[in-house]
Amino acid sequence: QVQLVESGGGVVQPGRSLRLSCAASGFDFRTYAMHWVRQAPGKGLEWVAFISWDGRHKSTVDSVKGRFTVSRDNSKNTLSLQMGSLGAEDTAVYYCARDFSQKYTIDFWGQGTLVTVSS
Amino acid sequence: QSALTQPRSVSGSPGQSVAISCAGTSTDVGGYTYVSWYQHHPGKAPKLVIYDVTKRPSGVPDRFSASKSGNTASLTISGLQAEDEADYYCYSYAGSNSWVFGGGTTLTVL
């Protein structure tokens, strides 16, 4: 079955960096685009980043542009999110999610990993 | 990239129907047929219940239906059941490989 397992969350000081990973299994990862979505405490879901199946096309929400970079390693079935210049507003549960091919939406989500930005 | 507008909460008794609106603009909801809805129980992964404005994924009961008119989409849940109590989010493609969520609606089954 489809599995997406995020890792790398934790407590990080403001201004520092953190790298999240997502291990995918149960499907042909190399043929699917992927997303990162986050949910701040007590807030709603926010789309964060997209990467095409081959990694050639990437996009991020304006609030993280220039600070977050999405990447993937299809040989290792792994999705990553490199986060820099972290601020309190980046505190959230970060979800790795699979793109529903040709439907411009998400069809499967991981359980999420919590990132807390605090001194 | 402003969040789509949803009511913060709705409620209904078992067996009743409720509707959740999702207001966007011509650059997201109104501009594409790519509106989805998610059911999210706190602490769990969100679940896709509607995609392509009106389609239900396999396994989602037909009590869940949806529509769109202009810049506003709607999700209707009929025959409310206790397990429907959750947060619901609309989600729309907004062009140039970008997407936007609604602010979320908490459904309470009375």
Describe the structure.
The complex is a heterodimer of chains A (119) and B (110). The radius of gyration of chain A is 13 Å and the shape is globular. With 119 residues, chain A is an all-beta fold. Chain A has no helices and 11 strands. In chain A, the strands form 2 sheets. In chain A, strands 2, 4, 5, 6, 9, 10 and 11 form a 7-stranded mixed sheet that branches. Chain A starts with a strand and ends with a strand. The mean pLDDT of chain A is 96. Chain A has strands at 3-7, 10-12, 18-25, 34-39, 45-51, 58-60, 68-73, 78-83, 92-100, 105-109, 113-117. With 110 residues, chain B is mainly β. Chain B contains no helices and 9 strands. Chain B has strands at residues 9-12, 18-23, 35-40, 47-50, 64-69, 72-77, 86-93, 99-101, 105-109. In chain B, strands 1, 3, 4, 7, 8 and 9 form a 6-stranded mixed sheet that branches. In chain B, β5 and β6 (72-77) form a beta hairpin. The model of chain B has no long low-confidence stretch (mean pLDDT 96). Classes of the chains: A mainly beta (119), B mainly beta (110).
Question: Main traits of this protein?
Answer:
A: 119 residues, four-stranded antiparallel sheet, 0% helix, globular, B: mainly beta, six-stranded mixed sheet, three-stranded antiparallel sheet, 44% strand
Give a brief description.
The complex is a heterodimer of chains A (119) and B (110). Chain A has 119 residues and is an all-beta fold. Chain A has strands at 3-7, 10-12, 18-25, 34-39, 45-51, 58-60, 68-73, 78-83, 92-100, 105-109, 113-117.
